[in-house]
Amino acid sequence: APSLLWFRDDLRLSDNPALAALAEARAPIAALYVLDEDSPGLRPLGGAARWWLAQSLRALSAELKRKGVPLILRRGPANRMVPEVAAALGAATVAFNDRAGAPEARVDHAVAARLLSEDRRVLSFCAHLLHPPGSIEGASGRMPRTFSSFQRAALKARRLDAPLPVPKHLRGVARPPAGEELESFGLEPTHPDWAAGLRTTWTAGEAAAQARLAAFIDSGLKGYAAGRDRPDEGHVSRLSPHLRFGEISPRQILSAVRHAAEAGAVTLADADKFEAELYWREFSYHLLADQPDMAQRNIQGAFDGFPWRECPGELKAWHRGLTGYPLVDAGMRQLWQTGWMHNRVRMVVASFLAKHLLIDWRAGEDWFWDTLVDADPASNPASWQWVAGSGLDAAPYFRIFNPVTQGEKFDPDGAYVRAFVPELAKLPTPFIHKPWTADAHALAHAGIRLGHTYPRPLVDHGAARERALRALESTRK
Ligand code: FAD
After folding, report:
1. What pLDDT, on the 0 to 100 scale, is given for residue 141?
2. Which end of the chain is more exposed for a tag (fewer CB within 10 A), N or C?
């Protein structure tokens, strides 16, 4: 009897345990993707992630087709769609890889219960993470409360098996149940078509993810430990959206990096630093399992009465990259144009919103959710709370990034700012991160009229810092 493979955040054929299990059983397979915007509690994907999903499904469908396996697309609540397709197919087995997140787990539970009641076999696997959520425990029996103790415990428990290859013997069903056209999902923008920058920046899909990993190991990884903080350099992998949609697995990435280190192609220091970043991803996902509502609720209750300011005008200036601080503005424009932002700059813009402007971190998390191609339900809220100070093992409350010195340190020639804030491109380097200090001659020469062609700073750094420290003191009592 045929088998049904239900794809979710695992849009790949290699290192896909659900697919491998079905392939091993040698039954003919049909694949299914359900766009579920109906089940209660699921957070609808943001705009940039929807765009990515469309490209990724197109790539997956083409790859499956080459192997003779049809991909059926359906839209609706998963607990109706999956059993319906399984019944139409006459599937004996349905397999999938687990998703993190409580609402997703509830849906999966309901689907599995229904399938089992219809006498179908259900197989599920952990493939999105290196360690199943809940499996890393500290002395308290809960997940360790600091990143370093989490990583230590995880490394002790780790068994790094070799990633699975694409199954050799794949057979598709001859007459798959009917599905819908990808276009009917409406995942891509039409009017206005804001995705041009995304199209020129990214190629989605498993093959592109593998190519990205190979290129990163060839060039970026060498010098990662020192270079990863430089938005003007190419030392980070940009694998995040591929990981978000499971076009590549963390195990594939980790073993490739380990191999490169063992072969002496990169130093252990670079490999270890990169591995630690992958563990920040694990930490965030395990935290999500521990705190399912962390996108809405402060992890540290002391922040519940925090005096956030309501100021839609300032929030809008931040959205648009018009705060008057060049590094912040470059980051926000990189995000809008490409759907991605460098990690160092994410920290600076997030700190600017939550501390300089005292705007609730949830407003920033929401904007990132809508505009990032890698927006994920774990790393996004966890990182926002980390920066705001309300998170687990968060940045100390008194750490308020100075957007000028951060720029001078991590974008010393201003190349990053010049690339994304073109109206400042001609400003001499000593002023590039603080145009308001430039003399009239330098400004005129660079074609800048402060307050007209580029804004003056929305807030004074020193005054904003003092205000934030006073507000943050309230969380220490
Ligand atoms: P690399 O440096 O090449 O790292 C490799 C991988 O490790 C990344 O792809 C990512 O999966 C993981 N990783 C690296 N840094 C972190 C981190 N600090 N936390 C968790 N995982 C990490 N990352 C997301 O994937 N989705 C998000 O929605 C997201 N939102 C963020 C919001 C804020 C305010 C901040 C400060 C960070 C956020 N991050 C998020 C974490 C980090 O910025 C990105 O993972 C990273 O910039 C992706 O680029 P890269 O793949 O080139 O990273």
Report:
1. 85
2. C
Catalytic-labelled residue, pool 84, 188, 194, 308: 308
Q: Which domain-ending residue is among 103, 127, 151?
A: 127
Taking only the tens place, the pLDDT of each residue in 146-164 is: 999 999 999 999 988 999 9
51-95 pLDDT, tens per residue? 999 999 999 999 999 999 999 999 999 999 999 999 999 999 999
Q: Is 361 a catalytic residue?
A: yes
How far does the centroid of ligand 1 lie from the alpha carbon of residue 240, in Å? 6
Cβ–ligand 1 distance for 383 under 6 Å, the answer: yes
Answer yes or no: is 189 within a domain. Answer: no
Instruction: Examine the domain organization and report whether 369 and 259 are in the same domain.
Output: no
Q: How far is the CA of 127 from the centre of ligand 1 (A)?
A: 19
Share of the chain above pLDDT 70, in %: 100
CATH (domain of 45): 3.40.50.620
233 Cβ closer than 6 Å to some ligand 1 atom? no
Residue 185 domain flag: no
Q: How many domains does the chain have?
A: 3
Q: Do 282 and 335 belong together in one domain?
A: no
The answer to whether residue 179 sits within a structural domain is: no
Q: Give every residue of the chain whose pLDDT is below 50, as ranges.
A: none
- The pLDDT value given to residue 140: 84
Separation of alpha carbons 291 and 283, rounded Å: 12
Q: What is the number of the ligand 1 atom nearest to the C-alpha of 342?
A: 47
Domain region containing 377: 301-473
* Residue owning the nearest CA to atom 10 of ligand 1: 240
- Catalytic residue (one of 361, 367, 369, 386): 361
371 in any annotated domain: yes
Is the CB of residue 213 below 6 angstroms from any atom belonging to ligand 1?
Answer: no
Q: What is the pLDDT of residue 108?
A: 97
Question: Which of 254, 343, 352, 355 is the pocket-test mutation for ligand 1 (most atoms within 8 Å of CB)?
Answer: 343
- What pLDDT is recorded for position 477? 64
Residue whose Cα lies nearest atom 2 of ligand 1: it is: 236
CA of 383 to the centre of ligand 1 (A): 9
- Would residue 343 show up in a list of annotated catalytic residues for this protein? yes
Closest among 299, 316, 297 to 395, alpha carbons compared: 299
Tokens of 443: 């400004």
Cβ of 188 less than 6 Å from ligand 1: no
Annotated active-site residue 436? The verdict is no
